[in-house]
Amino acid sequence: MENLDITVLRHLLQWRQQGQRALLATVIRTWGSSPRPVGSIMALCETGAVIGSVSGGCIEDDLIYRYRRADGAAGAGTHDIPDGPPERVKYGVSADEAHRFGLPCGGTLELMLEFNPDAGALAALVTALGDGRLMQRSTDLATGRVTVAPCERPEALSDDGQVLRNTFGPEYRMLLIGAGQLAEYLSTMAIFCGFSVSVCDPREEYRGSWNVPGAKLLTGMPDDVVQAFGVDRRTCVIALTHDPKLDDLALLEALGTEAFYVGAIGSRRNNEARRARMIEHFDQTEESLAAMRGPIGIYIGSKMPSEIAVSIMAEVLAVKNGVALPRDAQVGPAKDQLQPRSADEGGAVCFSASRVA
């Protein structure tokens, strides 16, 4: 499943290339509770077709009502999407209006509406995003003229009254080491959440049964794959094999990158053993391993592979979205509160992100 922003921009580009009138709506400011964050976008075609969202649906309905091509006799042959510079519009200024548009109590939303965006600038943006580049789109609010340029890191939307700047990035990527059952559930969830997923497993017996449409299967040794993957700050690397020959070297390579999440499956005891191996045999330190997560996932009492995948995906999304998880949600501390470790915990191989073997 493609990144939602890219999907919106692709549809908008297609409409404009077909000669259809369209608008791009961007959430530029919110007060109180808001259904969608600042920077969210949607596109509306003159036919009434909508892609993306700026609310729970009511504001989209209002925009369709206001800007859809008129089909009645009085308006036949006219278009309600005008030409001209961008316009600001607010929803939810009063309690009655907030209720009408389905906004939470006290919520107010401000949008910037850009009419008939230039197809050339859209094509340049979509192409760059498809090539995996992080881009900033700048709109001159007096003229509607748009420029796009590469940027080094994601930036919050800015509106100084003269120029609207919004950063668009390529898809987030997930690289999984190991093509077992857990990887099938996790990759399916990640694709649903808009990640581009690659699964690396040099073991033919695991690759033979792999069947997740949309996930790319890689056959090289995991550390070589991580080196060649071009890991960046929009990439997470997760080791799932329990085999040190496959997991450890891949994790070490990933720790030397800008990956926003690096982690490995296993019990607390197994993760401690992994850290000890890396310190003893690969000249690592506690500081150099600080970014390596494990046991991964949040504590939800998960035991089945599908539940474990939910646990891991939840933690990945929290890290991606900059949410600090409370200590009680982390697997190790949560398990410590429930029960002491058993004496033989380190002797078994743990399959679960949150199960103590």
UniProtKB/TrEMBL annotation:
It comes from the Bacteria. GO terms for molecular function: xanthine dehydrogenase activity. This is Putative xanthine dehydrogenase subunit A. Keywords: Oxidoreductase. It comes from Hydrogenophaga pseudoflava (Pseudomonas carboxydoflava). InterPro entries: MoCofactor_Util/Proc, XdhC_CoxI, XdhC_Rossmann_dom. Residues 174-316 form the XdhC Rossmann domain. Its EC number is 1.17.1.4. Residues 15-70 form the XdhC- CoxI domain. The keyword Oxidoreductase applies. Coiled coil: none annotated.
